[in-house]
């Protein structure tokens, strides 16, 4: 599972002026790295309109709609660390994890992220992590 968290897909000290911009940034990483077609980004924004992808503890996990599965080439995630935060409706978000799951793999990915991020201490460590390796290590501890 740890191979899903790749150093080149983790962006430290990012900023976003809106949740739309944060979702677009997370989706752009997935598209540029070849996990999804570019249209998947629109699907991520559509999904956010249906219901928020904010999961609590300053974490959002934007992903595509059910109809967008055909746009996923392979499973992958992007991680954006937003130390200044961005508002997802009434909630401040400091970590955005973009997800593209192929063949149901997204459920396993979501589970791992949820387990890691259910601990406030882990979330604080993610927000203040100084390296991509540190972020990967925090998620791997949940295995």
Automatic annotation (TrEMBL):
Taxonomic superkingdom: Bacteria
GO molecular function annotations of the record: kinase activity; protein-phosphocysteine-sugar phosphotransferase activity
Keywords: Kinase, Phosphoprotein, Phosphotransferase system, Sugar transport, Transferase, Transport
PROSITE patterns in the record: PTS_EIIA_TYPE_2, PTS_EIIA_TYPE_2_HIS
InterPro entries (UniProt xref): PTrfase/Anion_transptr, PTS_EIIA_type-2_dom, Sugar_PTS
SUPFAM superfamilies per UniProt: Phoshotransferase/anion transport protein
GO cellular component: plasma membrane
The keyword Translocase is assigned to this record: no
Identification of the protein by name: Mannitol-specific phosphotransferase enzyme IIA component
């Amino acid at each position: 599972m740890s191979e899903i968290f790749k150093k080149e897909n983790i962006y430290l000290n990012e900023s976003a002026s809106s949740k739309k911009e944060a979702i677009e940034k997370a989706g752009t990483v997935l598209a540029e790295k070849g996990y999804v077609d570019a249209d998947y980004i629109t699907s991520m924004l559509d999904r956010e309109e249906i219901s928020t992808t904010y999961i609590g503890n300053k974490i959002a996990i934007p992903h595509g709609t059910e109809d967008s599965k055909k746009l996923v080439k392979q499973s992958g995630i992007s991680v954006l660390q937003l130390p200044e935060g961005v508002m997802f409706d009434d909630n401040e978000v400091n970590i955005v994890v973009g997800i593209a799951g192929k063949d149901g793999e997204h459920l396993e990915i979501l589970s791992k992220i949820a387990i890691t991020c259910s601990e406030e201490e882990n979330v604080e460590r993610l927000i203040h992590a100084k390296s991509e390796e540190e972020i990967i290590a925090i998620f791997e501890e949940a295995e």
